[in-house]
Structures are given as structure tokens and as C-alpha cells.
């Protein structure tokens, strides 16, 4: 499978201010890709360039192999977009709003009905959008974004402003569309959402790409270890202490009271546990602490801070 | 590449939105009532011996039209794109497979239809009541008046889109629109009256012609008066000017200038909008 | 019966002879002879018939074309049947009347000469007590010319000069700035009716179009003009050095000036209509050095200037309607001691205009506690006596500017002009010369005025207007419906 989105050496300057600085990025067909970064990191500018709303100063954007220019309309047919914050036309009903976009996209009104059902607005489709809650507007925005079954769905901070149930439903929808083959590209500053949904991610800082890849790759790159903690009965401590010198595995453990703990690569943790069992250690309890995206993010930022 | 279908879709949405919004309904009712009141009281004031001079009534309607229509067109038009920018729907619209020129032209067309329908409804209902109750109206004058009102409105709508494109917030756009209105309708004329008070007729007349051509509101006002009262209403000093305007070449000139006023700002706003990205 | 006659003849032959004799001698002048002229008859020429006629005879003329000038030197009645044509052959006068008490009725008179210095006319009258009635006097230099002729009656004639369209084309040829100010202004034409030193004539119900002046009084006094209709000429009624004339119920349309009263005095005119005198130098009524005259119950409507006063003294202008003119009353300060009272001044772009700074001595807009009705009066009437409690003051900065710099007129009806008027009302700081009426009426005065019904647009146009209006509503409805429709999808 090729790349649905390919960004090469992308730059955007506003006068002296560099909003986006030589960014390279690849998004695979069919994946869920997240874009992370502080406010002002350049996410919005990057998204606007991907959507064709802003022209890059240098570099290129390929969407399904196509470049903006004369083929802009073809590209726009491939993309669905939900902005972070927006209001639709207050005096139109949900149905009128959606059919408006559908006509521009050349989509049938049967599909509008389907999309409204998917986002759960079928009941209220003849109500004025002006009277909609934030969440309902967001749903209508989603309906608009997926109505033409885009190959690439771009969501800008999709979870902000939603209540917890709304967030759960949104995640479910994202998974469903992804299963149906839509590539999802979303920006967020909510790390847990990203960790939960995204297969690959990119972290932006001050216009530059700070890190890119899967969570595992990032953990590896930033040497973030898994911590294993094993509790044993007090009487075994002596035995373990005697073992310590001999077995190389045991050497990694730090002993405190009746608790053993060690750091390892994530994929090594089962081997370590098994070797403990092999040595005859009776394990009363154990916990595994995998480093989350929050740690990765912290680490990325810390390193930038030191290197910068 | 412009797609007529897209333009129509946007125009239709714009028209539907306008119709739903309170301003259009309110404006239509106010406009119709004012037209009616002026015609009625204007006519009843003349109710002596059966003669009813519609010309003066139309002249007072003229003032109303000069005040009201450009203001409405400016305010409505200027907030259309700036407003969508502000609430974010413009981004969504532009990620649809449409070009920016289609967006501008569609919006112009939709708002133009809404305003035209509203003006026709106002003048039409006033006309029906006049015909039914009092009668006596110069039909050609009335029709010319209606047509020029529509042209004036569309010219200012075209300007308002330009305003809308160069501003980023609705409030900013409306403020600029009101400034433009105030300037073209009032300040400009005060300046021009000052110039007209200069004594050398040879200098004044070409200057005035230029000033007229530079302000569509003035142009329409002069055209209406020429239609209603004839060139002599402006007196012998301006005979050369008014005769020139009444002659074939003058009409062509006025037509061309009005055409430019109608499509110039619109074209310019398409050009600017297509190049603008800072939203 | 036969027997009786026989007896009568038998018994009184002498008496019969006597009666016959008396009949021959006396009845000839009393019982007039009728002579018939027709193109195919015994007498084919009108002059021949006049030559054969005795005073008092009636000459009836059958339809046909009669070429050559006609000279009437006997008191005969010349009656045309179905408008026979008299063609003067473009020399001198077509018909010349030198005898008193001649009647000329029912002819089409054409083809006078074109020499202004000889006053070539369709019908020229040198005598008294003639009746010129129901003729069509077309395409002559002068229509009717009265040379020191008095006590004539000119009634129901149609007098028409060169149509305006042709004059317009002629005047377009020399295309200077003022050409085309008014098409009829140009041209060397004569007048419809010209009275030179002619007095005590009655001019009734004539229709005059497309001549130089309509009716021109030159040193002609004590004439009466009633019910004439004059249009598309220079001055509809023109008095020069002609005193003590009256005119009433005349309709004067589309002229450079409806009536021009010059170097004359004591002219009384009532219930006339002065309308549609439009052009840069057009006037409903033009007073120029005309004194001691009275205008009452007239209508001045849709003129560039309603009534214009230049060096005219002690005139009275009362109970007139002055409406829808660009300038209602234009009063040059050389005119003094004129009185304007009881008039309705309605919807004039400028109610009263003055040469900057001066109203003119002794000109008054109110007398004995009564003024005029001004529809732009903004005062109030708390004591409910029908008279406003504060004086009416005409004029505002804009009209003042217009007078000072005529080019300002281009901004007529502009919001800026309205703002100037409004500011004057709010803050009367700017010292603009004003006409003052201390007793303005708050309601229009109920005046006895001529009927203006003919000026209303015919009723059928209401249907047309209604039709157009409905069409507008329909278009508006269609636009709205087009959109409404899709809601139901």
C-alpha cells in the first residue's frame, strides 16, 4: 500500500516568521495518523496546507500522488475535513446544510440520509442548525466530512468541546470509518486519545517535526523502558539474594524489602518473568508499567529543550 | 474552470439563508411600507383639482432609495464572506470541490437575487396599491426607477463583496461597509458640492462629470432626475453636461461606467480572494 | 284657392305691381342672395363670387382646392362646406379682409407668403366686427393678423405652424451650448394670432400649436381671451405695450413661457392653466416690466419656473395653485410691491427663488392676517385658527448655494442636500435670505380652480401599472418559491 499523504520538505513562512520548517511526513493508506504538538506548533498551518487552503512557501504535498494546482478539485474530492471550531449556517436545517455540501460534492441525497443516521442526527434533521449544541454541530461537521466517502479524513482537534460520551461515540465512528478503509489524519493535544486511536503519529514543535513513527518506535528511539515489579514472600528474599550473583537475569533487579523491580524493553518483559519462574521464584504479585505517550512526549520535549 | 452548477448551488444556499434571516423580511416590509407611504402622502398632498404629480413623489422615493438600498446591500454583502471566515464555515466550504471564484460569484448571485426579489416585492406591492387606490403614475418613469434602484443595489453589493474579502471579521466588515456608505452617500456629495461652487464653469463641468462617474450613487440619482424632470431640471449651467449624458455617446459612457462599477469590484474581489490565504 | 287668386290678381293688379317693385328695391339688401362656388360649378373662383356679390350676400364654397389669394372688400359671409382649401400661393396674405362685418367660416387656409416684414398671414384683417370662425389655418407665417382691427370675434379656429419636430431638426444644425433649450424658440415663424394696435377683440376657444408666439398683442388693449388652448410655441400669450387686457380659462402647455407680460399694465387673468413649460429658460408665467396686474385662480404646474417677476411692480398674485415646478415663484429683487396671498405652493423643488440677498422692497406674502399655504411649512397651529403660529421662512443653504453657484444644482435631491436642509432647520445659523410669510396656512386653501382632469393619466394606465406591479410581485414570488420548494425534500 502506498502513501495517501506525502509531505516533502514543506515550508511556510509568513514574512520572517517560519510557521512550518522543512517538514517530511508520510501517512499510509488505511491507517490512523495523529499529529501532536502544542498550540502554535504549526499544526494548523500544516493542516491548512494539506487541505489546500494555504499555499506552501516551498516543498510539496502529494495526496494520493496528486499535487494541488489544476487538479485541486480532484484532490478535494478525496478529502473530508472537520475543523476544530466552526458554526454552520444558523438559518438552515441540518438537512439543508448537508444537501448543500452534497450538491457541491456531487453526492446523492440518499447518501445524505445515511450520513445523518451515522452521526445520529436523523431525528433532528429539519431543525435549525443555529439551535444545535456544540456536539450536534460537530456531528453535522462529521457528516459533511464523510458524506462523499473520502479516502483521507482530516480532523482538527475532533474531541475538544465534546462531552465524554460524545468522545466515546466519536472514537467509535473513527474506528468504523477506518475499518471501512478511510485513512484518518487527526490533530490533537489529548495524548490519551492519540495513544488509543493512532497507529502512527508525528510530533511538531515550533514548526519543525520533532518525532515521527509508531508509539513503539518512539519508545525505542527515546529509550523508554518498561518497568517490572514483582512481589515475593519475605522468606524467598534470601534465596533470591543468593541467586543474584549467579544468574545474569537476576542481576538487573533491584531489591527492596520483598519487591523486585527492573527496567527492560517492552518485548523482553515475558522472558524476564519466565526466567524468574524457572529459577523457582514464587511470585505473589506483579505489575508492569509501560511508558505511555505522555512520557514519550515529555521525553521528546525534554530532548528538544536540551538540544535547542 | 468555473462550474455553473457550483455557482448555482452556492447562490441557492445564499438565497435560502437570506430568506430565512430576519433582515430580508424586515427590509422588504419596511421598504414596501415606506414606498407606499411616500407615494400615498406625496399624492394626497397634490390632491387639488385632480392633478397628481408622481414625479416629485418619485423624487422623494429617490432619497429613500439612495439612503436605504446601498446601506442594506453593503451591510448584507460585506458580512457574507467575513462572517463565514469568522465562524469557520468558510474553511469547510473551501475544502469542498469548488473554486474561490465560484464561491464569490455564487454569493453575489444569491444575494443579488434576494435583494432584487425584495425590491420588486416592495415596489410591486406599492405599485399595486397606488394603481388600485389612486392611480396616475408615469409607468415608464416608475419602471426606469425600479430598474435603476436594482442596478444601484447590485453595484453596492459588488462593492460590499470586495469589503468582505479584505476584512477578516464580520464586525470589521460591517464597520467598513458603513464607512463606505457614509462616504459615498453623504461626505462625497458635500465635497462635490464644494467643488461645484467653484465659479469657473469650464473647470467645474468636466470635474463634475468625473465626480459623477466616480460615484455610482450620484450617477443613478442624476439619471433618475433626468428621466423624471428632463435635462432642464439641472439648469442651463449644466446644459452641456446633461445634454452629453442624454446623447447617444453619453448613454454609452454611463452604461460602460455602471457596468464597470457592477463588475469591477466583483472581479477585483475574485482576484484578491483567490490569492488571499491568511484566514 | 285658384279662384281666389284669380280674383286677387284681377282686382288688384296695381297693388301687385307695387309689391313687386318694393320687393325689388327693398328686399334685395335684407333677403341676401346666396352664391355658390364649386370647382365644377358656374362660379369656380371665390374672388369672382365676391365680385358678383352684394354686401350681405352669403357665398357658400363647395369642397375643393381654390388657388390664389382672396380679397374680401365687401361685407359678405364666406362659408366653407367641409373645409374647402384656400391656397395663397406663398405670396402675401392668403385672405385679406378690408370690409367690416365679414364672416369667414369653415375653411382650410394655407400658403401665405414668408416675409416677416410684410407680416404675411393666413387671414389678415384691417377692418371691424368681423367673425372668423372654425377655420383650419395651417402652415402660414402668421395665422391671423389683425392690423388696427377692432371688435372682431375670432372663435374656434385651429392655427398650426410648422410642426415642432422639424424645428427641432433645424435647431440641431447649429449645435451650440444653448441650442435646443427649447425647440420652438428658434425659427422665423410668425405668431398664431397677432394683434397690432387692435382693441376690443374677442378671441375664444382657438387652438394654436407650433407657431412662434401663440397670441401676440402689440399695442393692443382691451381685448378678451377666453378658453384658448396654446401649445408648443414660444410665448403662449404675449403682451407688448398692451394694457387693460384680460384672459381667462386658457390652457397653455409646453411653451417656452405660458404667458409673457411685457411692458404692459392692468392685465387681469383668471383660471388659466400654465403647465409643462420646461426648458432652461422656460416659465409658466413671465412678468417683465408688467405692472398693476392681477393673477387669480390660475394653476401653474410642472414648469421650470412657475411665475417669474422681473422689474414688475404692484402686481397681485392671489389664490393660485403653484405646484410641482422646479422653482415656484422666481422673484428678482427689481420687482417691488407685489402681493402674493392665498396661494397654494406645493411640491416645488424651490418654492421661492430670489437673487441672492434680496426679497425686493415691498413684496409681501401675507396681508390682513392671511398668507399662503406652503407644503414645506414645519410650524404648528396651537390655537387652531388655520394659520400657523410661527412665520414661514423659505429657502435653505442648499437653495442658496444653487443660486450662487448654479452647478450645485447637480446635487438636487441628494442626501447631502437633504442634510443641508435639515441642518438649517435644526441650527439656523447660516444667514440665508428668506421669504417670510407671517400667516401661513397649515392646510391647503380650498381654491376655485380650473379642472385638471385632462392631465390625469388615463384610467387604463392604472391597469397597466397594476399589471407591471403584479409582474414584479410575481418575479419576487418566483425567486422565493424556487428556494422554498426544496425544504420539503
Describe the 3D structure.
The complex is a heterotrimer of chains A (308), B (279) and C (489). Chain A is an alpha/beta fold. Chain A folds into two domains: 211 residues, P-loop containing nucleotide triphosphate hydrolases (Rossmann fold); 65 residues, 2-Layer Sandwich (Alpha-Beta Plaits). Chain A has eleven helices and 13 strands. In chain A, the strands form three sheets. Chain A has a six-stranded mixed β-sheet, sandwiched between helices. Chain A has a four-stranded antiparallel β-sheet with strand order 11-12-10-13. In chain A, a hairpin with a 2-residue loop joins strand 1 and strand 2. In chain A, helix 3 packs across helix 4. Chain A starts with a strand and ends with a helix. The mean pLDDT of chain A is 86. Chain B has 279 residues and is mainly α. Chain B contains eleven helices and no strands. The two termini of chain B are 23 Å apart. Chain B is globular. About 3% of the residues of chain B have low confidence. Chain C is of the alpha/beta class. In chain C, 18% of the residues lie in helices and 30% in strands. The longest helix of chain C is centred in the C-terminal third of the chain and has 25 residues. At the B-C interface, helix 1, helix 3, helix 5, helix 6 and helix 7 of B face helix 5, helix 6 and helix 7 of C.
Amino acid at each position: 500500500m502506498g502513501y495517501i499523504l506525502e509531505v516533502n520538505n514543506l515550508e511556510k513562512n509568513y514574512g520572517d516568521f517560519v510557521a512550518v520548517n522543512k517538514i517530511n511526513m508520510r501517512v499510509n493508506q488505511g491507517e490512523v495518523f495523529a499529529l501532536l504538538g502544542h498550540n502554535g506548533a504549526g499544526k494548523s498551518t500544516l493542516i491548512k496546507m494539506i487541505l489546500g487552503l494555504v499555499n506552501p512557501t516551498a516543498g510539496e504535498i502529494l495526496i494520493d500522488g496528486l499535487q494541488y494546482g489544476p487538479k485541486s478539485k480532484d484532490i478535494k474530492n478525496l478529502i473530508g475535513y472537520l475543523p476544530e471550531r466552526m458554526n454552520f449556517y444558523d438559518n438552515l436545517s441540518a438537512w439543508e446544510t448537508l444537501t448543500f455540501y452534497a450538491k457541491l460534492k456531487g453526492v446523492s441525497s440518499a447518501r445524505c440520509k445515511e450520513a445523518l443516521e451515522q452521526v445520529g442526527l436523523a431525528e433532528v434533521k429539519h431543525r435549525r442548525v443555529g439551535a444545535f449544541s456544540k456536539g450536534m454541530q460537530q456531528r453535522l461537521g462529521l457528516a459533511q466530512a464523510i458524506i462523499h466517502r473520502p479516502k483521507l479524513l482530516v480532523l482538527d482537534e475532533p474531541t475538544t468541546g465534546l462531552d465524554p460520551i460524545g468522545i466515546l461515540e466519536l472514537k467509535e465512528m473513527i474506528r468504523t470509518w477506518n475499518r471501512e478503509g478511510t485513512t484518518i489524519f487527526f490533530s490533537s493535544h489529548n495524548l490519551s486519545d492519540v495513544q488509543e486511536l493512532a497507529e502512527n503519529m508525528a510530533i511538531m514543535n515550533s514548526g519543525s517535526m520533532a518525532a515521527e513513527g509508531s508509539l513503539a518506535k518512539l519508545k525505542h528511539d527515546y529509550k523508554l523502558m518498561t518497568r517490572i515489579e514483582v512481589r515475593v514472600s519475605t522468606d524467598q528474599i534470601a534465596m533470591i539474594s543468593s541467586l543474584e550473583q549467579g544468574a545474569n537475569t537476576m542481576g538487573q533487579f533491584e531489591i527492596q524489602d520483598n519487591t523486585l523491580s527492573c527496567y527492560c524493553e517492552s518485548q523482553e518483559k515475558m522472558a524476564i518473568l519466565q526466567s524468574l519462574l524457572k529459577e523457582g521464584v514464587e511470585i505473589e504479585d506483579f505489575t508492569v508499567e509501560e511508558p505511555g505517550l505522555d512520557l514519550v512526549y515529555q521525553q521528546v520535549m525534554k530532548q528538544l529543550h536540551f538540544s535547542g | 474552470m468555473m462550474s455553473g452548477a457550483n455557482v448555482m448551488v452556492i447562490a441557492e444556499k445564499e438565497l435560502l439563508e437570506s430568506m430565512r434571516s430576519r433582515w430580508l423580511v424586515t427590509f422588504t416590509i419596511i421598504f414596501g411600507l415606506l414606498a407606499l407611504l411616500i407615494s400615498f402622502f406625496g399624492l394626497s398632498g397634490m390632491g387639488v383639482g385632480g392633478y397628481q404629480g408622481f414625479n416629485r413623489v418619485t423624487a422623494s422615493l429617490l432619497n429613500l432609495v439612495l439612503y436605504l438600498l446601498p446601506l442594506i446591500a453593503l451591510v448584507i454583502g460585506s458580512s457574507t464572506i467575513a462572517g463565514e471566515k469568522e465562524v469557520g464555515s468558510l474553511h469547510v466550504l473551501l475544502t469542498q470541490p469548488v473554486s474561490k471564484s465560484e464561491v464569490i460569484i455564487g454569493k453575489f448571485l444569491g444575494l443579488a437575487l434576494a435583494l432584487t426579489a425584495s425590491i420588486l416585492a416592495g415596489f410591486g406591492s406599492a405599485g399595486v396599491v397606488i394603481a388600485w387606490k389612486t392611480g396616475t403614475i408615469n409607468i415608464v418613469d416608475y419602471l426606469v426607477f425600479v430598474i435603476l434602484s436594482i442596478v444601484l443595489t447590485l453595484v453596492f453589493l459588488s462593492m460590499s463583496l470586495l469589503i468582505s474579502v479584505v476584512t477578516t471579521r464580520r464586525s470589521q466588515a460591517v464597520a467598513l461597509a458603513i464607512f463606505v456608505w457614509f462616504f459615498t452617500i453623504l461626505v462625497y456629495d458635500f465635497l462635490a458640492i464644494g467643488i461645484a461652487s467653484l465659479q469657473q464653469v469650464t473647470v467645474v463641468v468636466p470635474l463634475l462629470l468625473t465626480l459623477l462617474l466616480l460615484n455610482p450613487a450620484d450617477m443613478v440619482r442624476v439619471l433618475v432626475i433626468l428621466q423624471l424632470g428632463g435635462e432642464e431640471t439641472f439648469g442651463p449651467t449644466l446644459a452641456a453636461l446633461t445634454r452629453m449624458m442624454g446623447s447617444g455617446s453619453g448613454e454609452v459612457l454611463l452604461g460602460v461606467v455602471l457596468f464597470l462599477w457592477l463588475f469591477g469590484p466583483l472581479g477585483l474581489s475574485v482576484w484578491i480572494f483567490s490569492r488571499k490565504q491568511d484566514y | 284657392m285658384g279662384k281666389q287668386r284669380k280674383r286677387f290678381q284681377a282686382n288688384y293688379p296695381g297693388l301687385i305691381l307695387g309689391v313687386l317693385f318694393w320687393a325689388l328695391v327693398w328686399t334685395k339688401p335684407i333677403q341676401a342672395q346666396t352664391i355658390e362656388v364649386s370647382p365644377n360649378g358656374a362660379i369656380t373662383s371665390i374672388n369672382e363670387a365676391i365680385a358678383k356679390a352684394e354686401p350681405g350676400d352669403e357665398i357658400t364654397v363647395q369642397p375643393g382646392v381654390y388657388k390664389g389669394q382672396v380679397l374680401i372688400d365687401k361685407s359678405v359671409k364666406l362659408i366653407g362646406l367641409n373645409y374647402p382649401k384656400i391656397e395663397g400661393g406663398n405670396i402675401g396674405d392668403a385672405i385679406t379682409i378690408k370690409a367690416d362685418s365679414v364672416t369667414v367660416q369653415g375653411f382650410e387656409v394655407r400658403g401665405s407668403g414668408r416675409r416677416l416684414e410684410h407680416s404675411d398671414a393666413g387671414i389678415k384683417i384691417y377692418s371691424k366686427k368681423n367673425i372668423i370662425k372654425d377655420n383650419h389655418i395651417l402652415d402660414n407665417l402668421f395665422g391671423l393678423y389683425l392690423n388696427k382691427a377692432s371688435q372682431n370675434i375670432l372663435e374656434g379656429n385651429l392655427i398650426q405652424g410648422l410642426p415642432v419636430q422639424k424645428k427641432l431638426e433645424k435647431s440641431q444644425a447649429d449645435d451650440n451650448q444653448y441650442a435646443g433649450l427649447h425647440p420652438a424658440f428658434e425659427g422665423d415663424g410668425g405668431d398664431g394670432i397677432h394683434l397690432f394696435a387692435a382693441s376690443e377683440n374677442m378671441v375664444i376657444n382657438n387652438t394654436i400649436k407650433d407657431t412662434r408666439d401663440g397670441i401676440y398683442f402689440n399695442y393692443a388693449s382691451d381685448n378678451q381671451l377666453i378658453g384658448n388652448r396654446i401649445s408648443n410655441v414660444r410665448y403662449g400669450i404675449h403682451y407688448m405695450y398692451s394694457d387693460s387686457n384680460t384672459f381667462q380659462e386658457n390652457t397653455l402647455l409646453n411653451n417656452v413661457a405660458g404667458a409673457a407680460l411685457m411692458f404692459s399694465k392692468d392685465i387681469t387673468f383668471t383660471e388659466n392653466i400654465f403647465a409643462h413649460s420646461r426648458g432652461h429658460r422656460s416659465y409658466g408665467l413671465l412678468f417683465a416690466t408688467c405692472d398693476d396686474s392681477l393673477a387669480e385662480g390660475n394653476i401653474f404646474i410642472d414648469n421650470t419656473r412657475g411665475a417669474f417677476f422681473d422689474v414688475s411692480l404692484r402686481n397681485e398674485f392671489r389664490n393660485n395653485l403653484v405646484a410641482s415646478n422646479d422653482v415656484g415663484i422666481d422673484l428678482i429683487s427689481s420687482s417691488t410691491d407685489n402681493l402674493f396671498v392665498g396661494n397654494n405652493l406645493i411640491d416645488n423643488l424651490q418654492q421661492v427663488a430670489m437673487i441672492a440677498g434680496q426679497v425686493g422692497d415691498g413684496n409681501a406674502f401675507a396681508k390682513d392676517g392671511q398668507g399662503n399655504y406652503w407644503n414645506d411649512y414645519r410650524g404648528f397651529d396651537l390655537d387652531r385658527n388655520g394659520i400657523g403660529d410661527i412665520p414661514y421662512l423659505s429657502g435653505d443653504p442648499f437653495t442658496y448655494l444653487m443660486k450662487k453657484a448654479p452647478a450645485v444644482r447637480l446635487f438636487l435631491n441628494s442626501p447631502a442636500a437633504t442634510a443641508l436642509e435639515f441642518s438649517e432647520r435644526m441650527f439656523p445659523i447660516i444667514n440665508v435670505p428668506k421669504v417670510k410669510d407671517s400667516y401661513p396656512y397649515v392646510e391647503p386653501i380650498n381654491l376655485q380652480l380650473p379642472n385638471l382632469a385632462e392631465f390625469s393619466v388615463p384610467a387604463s394606465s392604472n391597469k397597466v401599472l397594476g399589471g407591471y406591479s403584479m409582474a414584479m410581485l410575481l418575479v419576487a414570488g418566483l425567486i422565493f418559491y424556487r428556494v422554498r420548494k426544496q425544504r420539503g425534500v
